[in-house]
TrEMBL record:
Name of the protein in its database record: Lrp/AsnC family transcriptional regulator
Organism phylogeny: Bacteria, Bacillati, Bacillota, Bacilli, Bacillales
PANTHER family hit by this protein: LEUCINE-RESPONSIVE REGULATORY PROTEIN, TRANSCRIPTIONAL REGULATOR AZLB
Presence of keyword DNA-binding: yes
InterPro entries: AsnC-type_HTH_dom (IPR000485), Dimeric_a/b-barrel (IPR011008), Tscrpt_reg_AsnC-like (IPR019888), Tscrpt_reg_AsnC/Lrp_C (IPR019887), WH-like_DNA-bd_sf (IPR036388), WH_DNA-bd_sf (IPR036390)
Xref: SUPFAM superfamilies: Dimeric alpha+beta barrel, Winged helix' DNA-binding domain
Domain HTH asnC-type: 4-64
Organism: Thalassorhabdus alkalitolerans
Pfam families: AsnC_trans_reg (PF01037), HTH_AsnC-type (PF13404)
Keywords carried by this UniProt record: DNA-binding, Transcription, Transcription regulation
Keyword Transcription regulation: yes
Length: 150
């Protein structure tokens, strides 16, 4: 599957609206057979176009503090540091960036005290981190995993 067509994008759109939507319902909406929907979804899954996940609301499971932390790293240490950060369950996202920060992570914590512990006790042990710029989310306006633009 090198190329997604309009039907593929429509299927993705319906699944993003409601991941529990049945193949037969999507087929009716697109006026195609259920087999067509099943086949296309299976191909997209096999090709890694998307995956089915459960998106948990962090606040509802006791994670009240979201932090975005930007790091300046010692030259040559970026990948090693990223590898060490992957081991922390609090860390949801790690990316390498151009600009002010070499690495940026998104992490969730039960409390401010847990965040302070993470920064002062855990991050301080990782060799090669030069600075950590911590920003705590005060209010969220959008949280989306949709990359399909209608």
């Amino acid at each position: 599957m090198n190329h997604l067509d309009n039907t593929d994008f429509a299927i993705l759109g319906y699944l993003q609206e409601n991941g529990k939507r049945s193949y037969s319902e999507i087929a009716r909406c697109l006026d195609v057979s259920e087999g067509t929907i099943r086949s296309r979804i299976n191909k997209m899954l096999q090709q890694g176009v998307f995956e089915f996940i459960i998106h948990t609301n962090p606040n509802k499971v006791g994670l009240k503090v979201q932090a975005i932390i930007g790091f300046s790293t010692q030259l040559g240490k970026q990948e090693e540091i990223a590898g060490k950060l992957q081991k922390y369950p609090e860390v949801r996202f790690i990316g390498a960036f151009s600009g002010k920060h070499d690495l940026i992570i998104q992490a969730y914590f039960k409390s401010n005290e847990d965040l302070v512990h993470f920064v002062n006790k855990e991050l301080s042990q990782i060799e090669g981190i030069l600075t950590a710029d911590v920003s705590v989310e005060l209010k969220q306006y959008k949280d989306s995993f949709s990359y399909i633009i209608p």
